[in-house]
């Protein structure tokens, strides 16, 4: 069986997967002039590799909220408004070179057919009347091209051919809703991997609920063998399968985390300086039986400037003495992200037509924060894959600029996937657009 295709190169069946990234700092576009401003991302990697680049619009496409704006991208890259797709969320390429985009609260799937010459693409509705469609994946099963869709309470599949879908089938229904109920999907051979997010920001009851919340699970395409792979995963929206065939997730961690260290009188209290930059969002491998600790164990990045191999510390409210769960025995997080990044898009790039500097790693797309002061800005980043250690390394930014120095946003990145032309296609659910970021040649 072939894996899910988040991106596709004609004639090539790539192995696709989850991604994750550490993080880098960079300036961010501050409005129509594209002047740089103070970033809310940590100082460090790749800042000098991004330059403010004015967004242009493909012929016939309305730039909308992006009109006159700039993005920060690697030197020599171009940045275009490629398509108008209101509420654009997750994206996947079809075998015949079209882009399917979910719209979440829009309740529909859009299909974008590239135009010829210098003409913009044609956007049409592929399906409507859906319930919060989020995750999308393409695969080939039983001689047919199959589209997998994650709705709020169910996972469905459709047969895809020639720009249309048919033969809708519900693989699993009555999944938990409410709270973090966006269902993301990935394909691992003959199984669909999906997430069930938490009911709330911090809820220890999720670990013993029926069914358990804050999990990663898998199920066969025939609807059998539904199995929980991991627990304690607050909101594992980033999902895919790495080049080594293992499942990865990128996790949105706590907001307003109580201070977990016994180094004074702050233990268990709300400390704004700590909350702003902790706990780190997580990217890690998922194997059967994985426990990522939430909300009993808190990712601990002390002494880990590169945000790699993060251990855990006891949560001061739910597990202060470690009796509920021994946080030293649940393993480590492979890679951390700046707190409140809210990673959503996640895809490996091996086999794509991206330049060599991005061709064997993973792209992570962050949606940004709601409660940080100032908000963590949206971004797209890349992290290299190390085949020898089967792990992801420190990341560097690929695109920023959706938020100005005052924390005000005109756009918000959700997903970024390599295209068959070697460009990177980025969705934006705030501006309702799809951007085409093209490397210099």
Automatic annotation (TrEMBL):
Residues 72-435 form the Pyrroloquinoline quinone-dependent pyranose dehydrogenase beta-propeller domain. Keywords: Signal. It comes from the Bacteria. PROSITE patterns: PROKAR_LIPOPROTEIN. Pfam families: TrAA12. Residues 1-27 form the signal peptide. Gene3D superfamilies: TolB, C-terminal domain (2.120.10.30). InterPro entries: 6-blade_b-propeller_TolB-like, Beta-prop_PDH, Quinoprot_gluc/sorb_DH_b-prop. This is Sugar dehydrogenase. It comes from Williamsia herbipolensis.
């Amino acid at each position: 069986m072939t894996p899910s295709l988040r991106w596709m190169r004609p004639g090539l069946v790539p192995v696709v997967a989850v991604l994750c990234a550490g993080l880098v700092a960079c300036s961010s576009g501050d409005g129509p002039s594209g002047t740089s401003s103070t970033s809310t991302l940590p100082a460090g990697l790749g800042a000098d590799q991004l330059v403010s680049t004015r967004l242009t619009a493909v012929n016939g496409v309305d730039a909308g909220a992006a009109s006159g704006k700039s993005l920060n991208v690697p030197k020599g890259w171009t940045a275009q408004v490629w398509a108008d797709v209101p509420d654009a969320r997750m994206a996947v390429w079809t075998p015949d070179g079209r882009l399917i985009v979910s719209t979440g609260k829009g309740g529909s799937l859009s299909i974008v057919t590239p135009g010829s010459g210098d003409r913009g693409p044609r956007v049409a509705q592929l399906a409507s009347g859906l319930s919060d469609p989020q995750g999308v994946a393409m695969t080939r099963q039983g001689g047919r091209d199959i589209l997998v869709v994650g709705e709020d309470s169910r996972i469905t599949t459709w047969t895809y051919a020639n720009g249309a879908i048919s033969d809708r089938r519900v693989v699993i229904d009555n999944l938990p809703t409410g709270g973090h109920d966006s269902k993301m999907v990935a394909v691992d051979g003959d199984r669909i991997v999906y997430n069930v997010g938490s009911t709330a920001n911090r809820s220890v009851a999720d670990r013993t609920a029926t069914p358990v919340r804050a999990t990663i699970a898998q199920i066969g395409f025939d609807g059998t063998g539904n199995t929980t792979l991991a627990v304690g995963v607050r909101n594992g929206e980033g999902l895919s399968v790495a080049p080594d065939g293992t499942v990865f997730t990128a996790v949105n961690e706590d907001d307003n985390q109580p201070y977990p260290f016994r180094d004074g009188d702050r233990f268990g209290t709300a400390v704004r300086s700590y909350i702003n930059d902790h706990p780190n969002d997580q990217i890690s491998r998922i194997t059967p039986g994985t426990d990522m600790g939430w909300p009993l164990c808190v990712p601990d990045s002390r002494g880990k400037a590169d945000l790699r191999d993060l251990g855990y510390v006891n949560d001061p409210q739910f597990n202060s003495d470690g009796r509920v769960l021994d946080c030293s025995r649940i393993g480590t997080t492979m890679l951390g992200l700046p707190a409140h990044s809210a990673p959503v898009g996640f895809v490996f790039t091996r086999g794509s037509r991206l330049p060599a500097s991005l061709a064997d790693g993973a792209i992570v797309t962050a949606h940004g924060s709601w409660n940080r002061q100032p908000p963590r800005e949206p971004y797209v980043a890349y992290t290299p894959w190390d085949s020898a250690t089967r792990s992801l390394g420190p990341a560097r930014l690929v695109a920023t600029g959706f938020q100005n120095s005052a924390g005000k946003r005109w756009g918000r990145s959700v997903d970024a996937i390599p295209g068959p032309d070697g460009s990177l296609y980025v969705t934006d659910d705030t501006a309702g657009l799809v951007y085409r970021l093209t490397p210099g040649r």
